[in-house]
Write a structure and sequence with these properties.
Elements (H helix, E strand, L loop, with lengths): L2 E3 L2 E3 L1 H9 L2 E6 L2 H4 L13 H4 L2 H4 L2 H6 L1 H17 L4 H10 L4 E6 L5 H5 L4 E3 L2 E8 L26 E5 L8 H13 L2 E5 L11 H7 L3 E5 L12 E3 L3 H13 L1
Helix pairs in contact: 7-11, 9-10
Bound molecules: 2'-O-acetyl adenosine-5-diphosphoribose.
Length: 251
Protein backbone atom coordinates (compact mmCIF):
# COMPACT_ATOMS: atom_id res chain seq x y z
CA UNK A 1 0.00 0.00 0.00
CA UNK A 2 1.55 3.30 -1.05
CA UNK A 3 2.07 5.77 1.73
CA UNK A 4 -0.27 8.75 1.39
CA UNK A 5 1.51 11.91 2.49
CA UNK A 6 0.22 15.37 1.51
CA UNK A 7 -2.12 13.35 -0.82
CA UNK A 8 1.04 12.40 -2.78
CA UNK A 9 1.34 8.64 -3.28
CA UNK A 10 4.87 7.37 -2.52
CA UNK A 11 5.62 3.67 -3.10
CA UNK A 12 7.04 1.97 0.06
CA UNK A 13 9.99 0.61 -1.96
CA UNK A 14 10.91 4.19 -2.88
CA UNK A 15 10.88 5.16 0.79
CA UNK A 16 13.12 2.18 1.58
CA UNK A 17 15.59 3.32 -1.13
CA UNK A 18 15.51 6.81 0.34
CA UNK A 19 16.15 5.51 3.85
CA UNK A 20 19.10 3.34 2.79
CA UNK A 21 20.71 5.93 0.48
CA UNK A 22 24.21 7.09 1.43
CA UNK A 23 25.08 9.23 -1.59
CA UNK A 24 22.27 11.31 -3.07
CA UNK A 25 22.31 13.77 -5.98
CA UNK A 26 19.52 15.98 -7.26
CA UNK A 27 19.17 17.82 -10.56
CA UNK A 28 16.74 20.73 -10.56
CA UNK A 29 15.25 22.79 -13.36
CA UNK A 30 12.96 25.79 -13.60
CA UNK A 31 9.99 23.73 -12.37
CA UNK A 32 11.18 23.82 -8.77
CA UNK A 33 11.01 27.64 -8.84
CA UNK A 34 7.60 27.77 -10.55
CA UNK A 35 5.80 27.77 -7.17
CA UNK A 36 7.91 30.78 -6.18
CA UNK A 37 6.36 32.68 -9.08
CA UNK A 38 9.46 32.46 -11.29
CA UNK A 39 8.44 31.59 -14.87
CA UNK A 40 9.78 28.36 -16.36
CA UNK A 41 11.07 28.34 -19.92
CA UNK A 42 8.86 25.90 -21.78
CA UNK A 43 5.55 25.67 -19.96
CA UNK A 44 2.83 26.54 -22.43
CA UNK A 45 1.61 30.16 -22.19
CA UNK A 46 3.51 30.93 -18.96
CA UNK A 47 7.04 29.83 -19.95
CA UNK A 48 9.61 32.45 -20.96
CA UNK A 49 10.25 30.76 -24.29
CA UNK A 50 6.49 30.78 -24.93
CA UNK A 51 6.54 34.58 -24.76
CA UNK A 52 10.07 35.58 -25.74
CA UNK A 53 12.36 34.26 -28.44
CA UNK A 54 15.49 32.77 -26.83
CA UNK A 55 17.40 33.54 -30.03
CA UNK A 56 16.70 37.22 -29.37
CA UNK A 57 17.71 37.19 -25.72
CA UNK A 58 19.82 34.25 -24.58
CA UNK A 59 22.61 33.88 -27.13
CA UNK A 60 26.01 35.56 -27.67
CA UNK A 61 24.75 36.70 -31.09
CA UNK A 62 21.75 38.43 -29.48
CA UNK A 63 24.09 40.21 -27.06
CA UNK A 64 26.34 41.35 -29.91
CA UNK A 65 23.31 42.48 -31.91
CA UNK A 66 21.46 44.27 -29.11
CA UNK A 67 23.42 44.32 -25.82
CA UNK A 68 21.04 46.82 -24.18
CA UNK A 69 17.95 44.64 -24.83
CA UNK A 70 19.68 41.54 -23.44
CA UNK A 71 21.03 43.42 -20.40
CA UNK A 72 17.57 44.91 -19.65
CA UNK A 73 15.81 41.52 -20.03
CA UNK A 74 18.18 39.93 -17.53
CA UNK A 75 17.78 42.96 -15.22
CA UNK A 76 14.02 42.34 -15.33
CA UNK A 77 14.52 38.64 -14.54
CA UNK A 78 16.99 39.50 -11.72
CA UNK A 79 14.43 41.86 -10.19
CA UNK A 80 11.78 39.15 -10.45
CA UNK A 81 13.84 36.34 -8.88
CA UNK A 82 15.13 38.61 -6.09
CA UNK A 83 11.49 39.46 -5.21
CA UNK A 84 10.66 35.75 -5.16
CA UNK A 85 10.97 33.60 -2.05
CA UNK A 86 12.16 29.99 -1.82
CA UNK A 87 9.11 27.69 -1.77
CA UNK A 88 8.52 24.46 0.24
CA UNK A 89 10.24 22.48 -2.51
CA UNK A 90 13.49 24.46 -2.14
CA UNK A 91 13.23 24.28 1.65
CA UNK A 92 12.59 20.52 1.69
CA UNK A 93 15.59 19.98 -0.59
CA UNK A 94 17.78 22.00 1.78
CA UNK A 95 16.54 19.82 4.68
CA UNK A 96 17.06 16.62 2.66
CA UNK A 97 20.72 17.64 2.16
CA UNK A 98 21.17 17.31 5.93
CA UNK A 99 19.67 13.80 6.04
CA UNK A 100 22.37 12.00 4.05
CA UNK A 101 26.14 11.47 4.42
CA UNK A 102 26.67 12.82 0.91
CA UNK A 103 24.22 15.09 -0.95
CA UNK A 104 24.95 17.14 -4.09
CA UNK A 105 22.47 19.60 -5.55
CA UNK A 106 23.02 20.23 -9.26
CA UNK A 107 20.90 23.04 -10.64
CA UNK A 108 20.22 24.44 -14.10
CA UNK A 109 18.54 27.41 -12.45
CA UNK A 110 20.28 30.77 -12.26
CA UNK A 111 17.87 32.28 -9.68
CA UNK A 112 19.90 31.64 -6.51
CA UNK A 113 16.79 30.35 -4.65
CA UNK A 114 18.45 27.09 -3.52
CA UNK A 115 21.14 28.96 -1.60
CA UNK A 116 18.57 31.31 -0.09
CA UNK A 117 16.61 28.20 1.01
CA UNK A 118 19.66 26.89 2.89
CA UNK A 119 21.13 24.40 0.41
CA UNK A 120 24.93 24.40 0.59
CA UNK A 121 26.55 21.82 -1.68
CA UNK A 122 25.26 23.41 -4.90
CA UNK A 123 26.63 23.07 -8.45
CA UNK A 124 25.29 25.86 -10.70
CA UNK A 125 25.57 24.41 -14.20
CA UNK A 126 24.14 27.46 -15.98
CA UNK A 127 25.59 30.24 -13.81
CA UNK A 128 23.84 32.74 -11.55
CA UNK A 129 21.82 35.77 -12.63
CA UNK A 130 23.04 37.73 -9.59
CA UNK A 131 26.67 37.53 -10.75
CA UNK A 132 27.92 39.99 -13.39
CA UNK A 133 31.04 39.39 -15.50
CA UNK A 134 33.06 41.27 -18.07
CA UNK A 135 32.00 40.05 -21.54
CA UNK A 136 35.67 40.02 -22.65
CA UNK A 137 37.69 38.99 -19.59
CA UNK A 138 34.88 36.77 -18.18
CA UNK A 139 35.89 37.72 -14.63
CA UNK A 140 33.29 38.71 -12.02
CA UNK A 141 32.73 42.46 -11.64
CA UNK A 142 31.03 43.41 -8.38
CA UNK A 143 30.80 47.17 -8.88
CA UNK A 144 31.06 49.64 -11.74
CA UNK A 145 30.72 53.42 -12.17
CA UNK A 146 27.12 54.66 -12.49
CA UNK A 147 26.32 55.50 -16.11
CA UNK A 148 23.27 56.07 -18.30
CA UNK A 149 24.82 53.72 -20.82
CA UNK A 150 23.45 50.14 -20.72
CA UNK A 151 25.00 47.60 -20.49
CA UNK A 152 27.50 49.20 -18.09
CA UNK A 153 31.15 48.86 -19.02
CA UNK A 154 33.89 46.84 -17.35
CA UNK A 155 35.96 49.19 -15.15
CA UNK A 156 39.12 47.28 -16.15
CA UNK A 157 38.86 47.02 -19.94
CA UNK A 158 35.79 48.98 -21.01
CA UNK A 159 33.96 46.02 -22.57
CA UNK A 160 30.26 45.58 -21.88
CA UNK A 161 29.28 43.76 -18.69
CA UNK A 162 26.91 40.76 -18.95
CA UNK A 163 25.11 38.36 -16.62
CA UNK A 164 27.15 35.31 -15.52
CA UNK A 165 24.72 32.86 -17.11
CA UNK A 166 25.28 30.28 -19.85
CA UNK A 167 23.67 31.27 -23.16
CA UNK A 168 22.65 28.92 -25.94
CA UNK A 169 25.73 27.78 -27.83
CA UNK A 170 28.07 28.59 -24.94
CA UNK A 171 30.02 25.95 -23.07
CA UNK A 172 29.11 25.18 -19.46
CA UNK A 173 31.64 25.74 -16.66
CA UNK A 174 33.73 22.61 -17.18
CA UNK A 175 34.74 22.05 -13.54
CA UNK A 176 31.11 22.31 -12.44
CA UNK A 177 30.04 19.89 -15.15
CA UNK A 178 32.73 17.36 -14.18
CA UNK A 179 31.65 17.55 -10.52
CA UNK A 180 28.02 17.08 -11.55
CA UNK A 181 28.74 13.91 -13.53
CA UNK A 182 30.92 12.59 -10.69
CA UNK A 183 28.07 13.16 -8.22
CA UNK A 184 25.59 11.46 -10.58
CA UNK A 185 27.85 8.46 -11.14
CA UNK A 186 28.49 7.96 -7.40
CA UNK A 187 24.87 8.47 -6.39
CA UNK A 188 22.86 5.52 -5.14
CA UNK A 189 19.75 7.70 -5.37
CA UNK A 190 19.19 10.52 -7.92
CA UNK A 191 16.29 12.98 -8.02
CA UNK A 192 15.41 14.75 -11.30
CA UNK A 193 13.15 17.61 -10.26
CA UNK A 194 11.25 20.16 -12.36
CA UNK A 195 13.20 19.83 -15.58
CA UNK A 196 11.92 19.12 -19.07
CA UNK A 197 15.15 17.19 -19.68
CA UNK A 198 15.51 18.82 -23.11
CA UNK A 199 18.79 20.68 -22.66
CA UNK A 200 22.14 18.88 -22.80
CA UNK A 201 24.42 18.08 -21.10
CA UNK A 202 22.29 18.47 -17.94
CA UNK A 203 19.63 16.09 -19.27
CA UNK A 204 22.23 13.29 -19.41
CA UNK A 205 22.88 13.40 -15.66
CA UNK A 206 19.86 11.29 -14.61
CA UNK A 207 20.82 8.67 -17.19
CA UNK A 208 24.44 8.67 -16.00
CA UNK A 209 23.15 7.97 -12.49
CA UNK A 210 20.85 5.21 -13.80
CA UNK A 211 23.69 3.59 -15.77
CA UNK A 212 25.81 3.51 -12.61
CA UNK A 213 23.12 1.68 -10.66
CA UNK A 214 21.27 4.52 -8.95
CA UNK A 215 17.56 4.54 -8.17
CA UNK A 216 16.36 7.54 -10.20
CA UNK A 217 13.20 9.41 -9.27
CA UNK A 218 11.58 12.04 -11.53
CA UNK A 219 9.38 14.69 -9.89
CA UNK A 220 7.35 16.60 -12.47
CA UNK A 221 3.62 17.15 -13.09
CA UNK A 222 4.27 16.35 -16.76
CA UNK A 223 6.07 13.46 -18.48
CA UNK A 224 9.47 14.16 -20.05
CA UNK A 225 11.74 12.26 -22.49
CA UNK A 226 13.29 10.60 -19.42
CA UNK A 227 10.05 9.43 -17.79
CA UNK A 228 10.01 5.96 -19.37
CA UNK A 229 13.59 5.31 -18.12
CA UNK A 230 13.05 6.40 -14.50
CA UNK A 231 12.93 3.95 -11.61
CA UNK A 232 10.06 6.00 -10.18
CA UNK A 233 8.11 9.03 -11.37
CA UNK A 234 6.01 11.09 -8.96
CA UNK A 235 3.64 13.24 -11.05
CA UNK A 236 3.16 16.31 -8.88
CA UNK A 237 4.46 19.76 -8.03
CA UNK A 238 7.87 19.82 -6.33
CA UNK A 239 6.49 22.10 -3.62
CA UNK A 240 4.24 19.24 -2.47
CA UNK A 241 6.23 16.14 -3.45
CA UNK A 242 9.56 17.08 -1.81
CA UNK A 243 8.00 17.86 1.62
CA UNK A 244 6.12 14.56 1.33
CA UNK A 245 9.38 12.69 0.62
CA UNK A 246 11.06 14.41 3.56
CA UNK A 247 8.14 13.52 5.85
CA UNK A 248 8.15 9.88 4.68
CA UNK A 249 11.93 9.72 5.27
CA UNK A 250 11.57 10.99 8.82
CA UNK A 251 8.74 8.63 9.80
P1 LIG B 1 11.74 24.06 -18.68
O1 LIG B 1 10.86 25.26 -18.68
O2 LIG B 1 12.26 23.52 -19.98
O3 LIG B 1 10.96 22.85 -17.97
C1 LIG B 1 10.32 23.10 -16.73
C2 LIG B 1 9.80 21.76 -16.25
O4 LIG B 1 9.24 21.95 -14.95
C3 LIG B 1 8.69 21.20 -17.13
O5 LIG B 1 8.95 19.81 -17.39
C4 LIG B 1 7.43 21.35 -16.27
O6 LIG B 1 6.52 20.28 -16.47
C5 LIG B 1 8.02 21.27 -14.89
N1 LIG B 1 7.24 21.94 -13.83
C6 LIG B 1 6.40 23.00 -13.94
N2 LIG B 1 5.90 23.33 -12.73
C7 LIG B 1 6.45 22.45 -11.83
C8 LIG B 1 6.34 22.26 -10.43
N3 LIG B 1 5.56 23.05 -9.67
N4 LIG B 1 7.05 21.26 -9.85
C9 LIG B 1 7.85 20.45 -10.61
N5 LIG B 1 8.01 20.58 -11.95
C10 LIG B 1 7.31 21.56 -12.54
O7 LIG B 1 12.96 24.39 -17.69
P2 LIG B 1 14.32 23.59 -17.57
O8 LIG B 1 14.14 22.12 -17.73
O9 LIG B 1 14.98 24.07 -16.32
O10 LIG B 1 18.95 27.05 -20.13
O11 LIG B 1 15.15 24.17 -18.83
C11 LIG B 1 16.52 23.77 -18.96
C12 LIG B 1 17.28 24.94 -19.51
O12 LIG B 1 16.64 25.45 -20.72
C13 LIG B 1 17.34 26.14 -18.60
O13 LIG B 1 18.37 26.04 -17.65
C14 LIG B 1 17.63 27.25 -19.59
C15 LIG B 1 16.61 26.90 -20.65
O14 LIG B 1 16.91 27.48 -21.87
C16 LIG B 1 19.88 28.04 -19.93
O15 LIG B 1 19.63 29.04 -19.30
C17 LIG B 1 21.21 27.75 -20.57
Amino acid sequence: MSQQVHSISIPPALIESLRSAQSVAALTGAGISAESGVPTFRDAQTGLWANYNPEELATPQAFRRNPRLVWEWYAWRRELVNRAEPNPGHLALAELERQFPRFTLITQNVDGLHRRAGSRNIIELHGNINRTICSSERIEVESWPESDELPPRCPHCGSFLRPDVVWFGEILPQAALARAFEAAEWADLFLSIGTSALVQPAASLPLAALQHGAVVIEINPQPTPLTSRMTYTIPGPAGQVLPALLEALKQ
